[in-house]
Amino acid sequence: MSVWNQKLRKTLLTAGISAALATSGAAVAQQGMQGAPHGGGAAQGQMPQMTDEQRQLMEQMRGVQQELQQTQAQLSKMEQQAYENNPELGQKREQLQEKIADKMSSGGYDAEQEFEQMKQTMAKYQSGDQQPSESEVQAFREKQQEFQQRQQQAFQDEQVQQMAQSLRSDVEKQMKANNSDAERLFEKMNKQAEKMQQLRNKAMQMQQGG
Predict the structure, then answer these.
(1) How far apart are CA 151 and CA 109, in angstroms?
(2) For 104-156, how does the pLDDT look when each residue is reduced to its tens digit (9 = 90+)?
(3) What is the separation, in whole angstroms, between the first and last Cα of the chain?
């Protein structure tokens, strides 16, 4: 409901195992709006004047992003069905989650405990009746940043990559077995992700005056 809750939701989704299973193209596309011409290197509160070409590019990016999100939503439902139809996939996912948490946890850092604390924070402000203080917002951002950094490092691990690839392959097979439309949607998502990356590159070139 509030901006705070939206940020928390996004963080927890990012922290979820789906991040490890997303195709590289989709992951890039989800970040596609970052680095767009309106952001630039200008200080906050200063909006650089956009050219007609930049405005048109922004509209294209918004359109592709919306289409991509719709495709991903359809695939997400199919993915959930795949897990429901094949309990072994759920067990494999839990093993991957445990391995990632293990790789993230070092030097006194407990990834599972940190994740639970983030969920509790989200629940605390879920209704919107309470608003966090600036110090709470800052503390959460710091937790979020460290969690994501450790998560990214865990994904670099060869064993984690192998487990994630194996699970992703099994899930996709189950999705395609359950629904004849899955193959088409995967291809559609990859094309949309590729298009988003192209637009993003163009936007960055514009920023740099290229």
Answers:
(1) 12
(2) 998 899 998 998 888 888 788 877 778 888 888 888 889 989 998 998 999 89
(3) 40
Give the global pTM. Answer: 0.69
- Distance between CA atoms of residues 194 and 205, nearest Å: 17
Q: Is the dihedral of CA 31, 15, 109, 152 positive or negative?
A: negative
Q: Using one digit for the tens of pLDDT, what is the confidence trace for 84-94? A: 999 999 999 99
Percentage of residues in the chain with pLDDT exceeding 70?
76
Residue at token pair 């994630």? 164
Other CB atoms within a 10 A radius of the CB of residue 114 amount to 19
Name the residue type at position 57.
L
Task: Kindly give, in sequence order, each residue whose CB lies less than 8 Å from that of residue 33, ignoring residues fewer than 6 positions away.
Answer: 61, 62, 65
* DSSP helix, strand, coil percent of the chain (3-state; round to 5): 75, 0, 25
Q: How far apart are CA 59 and CA 53, in angstroms?
A: 10
Dihedral sign (CA 73, 171, 174, 89): negative
Is the pLDDT at 181 greater than 50, yes or no? yes
**Within its chain, how far is the Cα of 106 from the centroid?**
24
Whether the predicted pLDDT of 99 surpasses 50: yes
- Read off the DSSP letter of residue 188: H
